[in-house]
Amino acid sequence: MLAAAAVAQFVVALDMAVVNVALPAVRTALGFDALGLSWVVHVYALTFGGFLLLGGRACDMYGRRRLFVAGLVVFGICSLAGGLAQEPWQLVAARAGQGLGAAATAPAALALLTTTFTDGPRRVRALGVWSGMNAVGGALGVLVGGVLTQYAGWRWVMLINLPIVATALVLVHAAVPAEPRQATRRERPDALGAVLATGGTGLLVFGVVRTDVQGWASTETLMTLGGAALLLVAFGLVESRVPAPLLRLGLLRSRWVAGANLLVFLAAAGQFTAFYFISLYLQQVLGLGAAATGAAFLPFSVGSVAGTVVATRITANRSPRVALVPGALLAAVGLAWFARISPHGGFLTDVLGPSLLTSVGIGLVFAPAAAAATTGVRADEAGMASGLFNSARQLGGCIGVATLATIAAHHTGTATDPGALNGGYALGLAVSAALLLLSAVVAICVLPRRRRSGAGSSAPQSATPVVHAKRAKHAKQRTGGKSS
């Protein structure tokens, strides 16, 4: 089951980055214009981020395994459709479908982990594997995209998903039993909450990712973000009144849940932005090709895995804070080092050292953050908490990249020489370092110092009265019917 969840998370993370390097080849092959080409990236982020809360809640109501399998099947079919696309609209539609499939698969995978691995050390190790595969998928996406585009053709950046999805389906079929019908929840779906949450987060992502064309101060952007705010406020009001909410607002009163989601929002904003600017620096300032740029991200993969291994060891029987605080600080130092990039630099002098430092710090952050975000959460709300965590991470990445790309563009202006571009990228990386520093402050000030006894468990709450009843019955039999 752990292997199935890890493989699924790998392919979801891989697809966030694998297409980016292939965009020039896609534009030439299918005849995209500049505006339409951006939607190959944006529509995946839009549907993925917009439907995560709904996907997480559907896991609790209809079964985690069912949603996991359904999401993978949709993801695989849409990957095949994208690889065979002959027109621009076909590829955009396929990418939208991939986002929908990922929005079901990602929270289902995390919910399966948190409800299966309920004791401290095993739970932390499982979440470490999941987080490590997520980090490796994101980092290798650039390498795989570059190699496939250069040597096999752009269609393979979509078709490569098929064997990975097939592997995850085989693993889940072999290891994860289907939930009994009576075990899944059959409350009336929160249809209004689903519409408001999906519409609000979708508009938010749409407004942010379009700032590269419209600008933050444009009427279109302000109206879109204002509409998103109204929908999300309405969503909060509805969730406080319905009997079976999409997101129970009381969940956010937990310092573990609220703190971990705020932390991962900030950390993802810094991490995604770093990937974006480093990729541009390697190609547009240092002049590396697509495959060489992808290879330059290999140290990041190694460092992420190393950081995750260390995190699982030091938090197995300790609070997630033990890894979160030093991890965020280490990543902030690495990004501050990255901000010293030079237009006359090179991989060994400007990229390798900060890549290793930043990636180890990131590896120390995300597995403990997932553990913190699900600490004390009931088993029947594991999907809800998982959807919230994935939403925070996805929205943090989208908003971070869009915001800091705009800041860098304003700093650069209309200049296109390597020196000017280097200055804009350095500024963006410096702000990314500040975001990681702020996430460390959140870990120190918001997260509890100690995990309360049993807080790491997601054991079903409904089992507790049954266990107590059986123990009481056996105790009564041993004492001859006398109470003790």
From TrEMBL:
Its main location: membrane. Residues 1-451 form the Major facilitator superfamily (MFS) profile domain. Pfam families: MFS_1 (PF07690). SUPFAM superfamilies: MFS general substrate transporter. InterPro entries: MFS, MFS_dom, MFS_trans_sf. Keywords: Antibiotic resistance, Cell membrane, Membrane, Transmembrane, Transmembrane helix, Transport. GO terms for molecular function: transmembrane transporter activity. Residues 468-484 have a biased composition (Basic residues). Residues 454-463 have a biased composition (Low complexity). One of its GO terms (cellular component) is plasma membrane. It comes from the Bacteria. The chain crosses the membrane at residues 34-55, 67-85, 97-115, 127-148, 154-178, 190-209, 221-238, 259-282, 288-310, 322-339, 351-374, 395-413, 425-447. It is a multi-pass membrane protein. Residues 452-484 are annotated as: Disordered. GO terms for biological process: response to antibiotic. It is found in: Cell membrane. This is Major facilitator superfamily (MFS) profile domain-containing protein. It comes from Streptomyces roseochromogenus subsp. oscitans DS 12.976. The lineage of its organism: Bacteria, Bacillati, Actinomycetota, Actinomycetes, Kitasatosporales.
